[in-house]
Amino acid sequence: MNDFFLAVGIGLCLLITLTLYRVILGPTVIDRIMGVNIIGTKTTILLIVIGIIYRRVDMFVDIALAYALLNFITTIAASRYFQRHKNLSPLGFGFRYKKEAGK
Amino acid sequence: MIDMLTIILILTGYFFFFATTIGVLRFPDFYARMHAAGKGDILASLLMLTGLALYNLHHFSVNQLLVSLKIMLIVMFIFLASPTATHAILDAGYESGVHPWTKEKKTEDKRE
Amino acid sequence: MHFIYTFLLMFGFWIILSGKFDLFHLTLGVISSGLVALLSHDLLFKDRTQKNRLVEVSRFVQYIPWIMGEIVKATLHVVYLALHPRMKDLIDPKIIRFRTKLKSKVGRVAFANSITLTPGTITIRIVDDEYHVHALSRKVADGLPGEMEERLHRVFRED
What we know:
The complex is a heterotrimer. Chain A has helices at 2-25, 29-53, 57-83. Chain A is mostly helical. In chain A, helix 2 (29-53) packs antiparallel against helix 3 (57-83). Chain B has one domain (2-111).
């Protein structure tokens, strides 16, 4: 059973690496915030899997709970901050439709 | 018996996570990616965390029961928080003018 | 009444999070959750009308199994779209707007979250009683507001 949880943990790390593509290269800032949110959800589960592997779930579950709360607050704060910034990305296909008047 | 159930639950949840990640990489625009991100995460984390909580009850004691209750608390929190976070990110994108991908728009852009 | 509800909620939280059942820790829990409840009992349950909340809560519990079925359907739909090789032919995204007939604020929030959890649609924002919804295809866009609003209207009706 321990090997199974090890495999699940490694698989979750793999998925986090795949999502990291969207965080690094995502065309707009909003895409990056979304990627960070997804990585946070996966990390919450990964923490509990690590706890089961090391047989200290009672300690790791508190960390996971705190991480879930922090992840939510981070997402809300970052999206509220970038809501007022109109300059998310350069003009190009599919990103900005409110063209600025002076240019 | 509990081991079998745990393995089935975790593998199903892992499959949903995998498909969601592929969706996040493949969908054409931000709004469609948000569909994959917001929905897949909820069911996948519900399945995986339920599986882990069940496995944790293997050697039954009050302490283990409390730990499983805490894991279910995380599930409940994700259920409340994930749609809210999805709304917040979407609202930020809508407000700052991210253009939605549509079939007609794509041909229009080619003409320009 | 609000004070007692908040106190019970906080004390249940304390018991789950602390995990110790001796007299010292239980007394600490009663003191601290009582203090928090005293300070914040008007924050959590904002609405001051003297309605019977328990009826609403029980009707909402009956609504939960249906929404769980919808979540499973929505995830399978997203998985099917994400793994389909010709995905861009299948989707046809569109932003639609419609007005709701739900009156209470809690009802509107529950409706917005339910839209997010059903196949192919997510709520972008609510302006007064107008919903902005992003739909993945024309077919699901035509299905709104539909059956779900009827169900939620039954849950949060005024009687």
